[in-house]
Amino acid sequence: MTLATKRHVLAVIPDLFFATKVAATARASRVELELVAPQHAAARVAEARPKLVIIDLHAADAVVLVAAIKAVAPAVPVVGFFSHVEIALRRDALAAGADAALPRSQFANRLAVLLTHGLEALRTPAPGEITP
After folding, report:
1. Distance of CA 34 to CAs 44, 123, 126, 128, Å?
2. Structural domain total, the chain
């Protein structure tokens, strides 16, 4: 795959430790990952039209950001991740337009396939997983 045909994924992950893990997985999967600050994400999505947007739902105003991204690029899939105890956050993100919201552990387990295949990777949940 050449640089011009690399899959482009945009991510809003303020946690630098976890962002580094996501970036390493993207590199290993040959996916171009662009990390952006929450305040620039919607504008960047409108400009770049990535294949996928990943959002840490614990980022400041993440649910508002999901809605803003869907307003400027409704066809771009948005996947959020959250702490497994924050079920209300999942519900709010889905109501705002997120295509999927996964507990962080499930997100991490499916990260490589999610980066390379997008929402299709989530069509069949693994045993014990919450469906998107």
Report:
1. 10, 24, 27, 31
2. 1
